[in-house]
Amino acid sequence: MDWRQLAACRDHDLEIFFPVARHGKLPDSANWAARRVCEGCAVRADCLAWAKAHAVHGIWGGTTEKERRTVAPSVAAS
Predict the structure, then answer these.
(1) pTM here?
(2) What is the number of structural domains in the chain?
(3) Domain span holding position 23
(4) Which of 10, 18, 23, 41 is most buried, judging by how many CB atoms fall within 10 Å of its CB?
């Protein structure tokens, strides 16, 4: 079974995981809904590892693109 089949985000509006910046900047609250879904996800670590390996856009494993570039996976997944 692929980890994506177990992802908590499967039952949510995927638009919350791909916030759009307004005037060149994301509002502080733009990621909170996605992060809440990711908090209890059973496959969060797998999701984060996949996102780091593929340099994808959006919230994956409870992290933003910037966080994935700067934070160690073990810190972000905890």
Answers:
(1) 0.78
(2) 1
(3) 3-77
(4) 41
